[in-house]
Amino acid sequence: MTLLAILLGTLAAGIGSVWLAAWLSFGIVSRYTQHMLSLAAGALLATAFLHLLPEAFEAGVEPHNLFVTLLFGLLFFFLLDKAELWHHGHEHHHGDVHHGHHHGHHHDPEHAHADEASHDHGTHQHSSHDKPIAGGWAILAGDSVHCFGDGVLIASAFMVDLRLGVVAALAVLAHEVPHHMGDLVVLNEGSRSRQTAILKVTLAGAITALGGVAGYVLL
User: Fold this and answer.
1) Is the pLDDT of residue 8 over 90?
2) How many domains does the chain have?
3) What is the mean pLDDT of the chain?
4) Between 82 and 175, the higher pLDDT residue
5) Contact predicate 178/18, CB 8 Å
6) Residue 42 belongs to domain spanning
7) Does residue 72 lie in a domain region?
């Protein structure tokens, strides 16, 4: 019974917060996308410098070890971002080679002019609808780790008292909505695909359930 309550609570908090954030981001405030992007960046920075780092200091971690870990994390996500952009550009390079080979068989000037116009038009569409998601995987990786910790927190609350678990799940849901709004806005700005952005953040939110199961087994 407790495990079932943990699963329901973590899924409601993890995935429910994503869907509520999507409804707010793409429904009510969709016309303020650029403003939301700036707000998202500010929220992510505030979370790191006003919430996560102070908690690490209060936990009694050695400053040297803390900043070594911080430096390692920054380098890891920087390299992850570069690898993502390199992979995106590598795919485009092969696509351009294939595209150029295909047009090399046309010798008629009219066809060449039409192909050039079509190529220019396609390039315009490509640049506006298929941009790389700068920092997309880094955001999802960080969100997944955060959601796993939320799952452990919810599980520990449910193991103490059912009502306390419900309160914890609701608190996590309310806490995660603005964070997921930031993730969705950033990912949507990079991919121009709301469905893809929602799916990726939903999968990250589902990690909350894994954290809940881990907390139930280990605590």
Assistant:
1) yes
2) 1
3) 76
4) 175
5) no
6) 2-90+131-218
7) yes
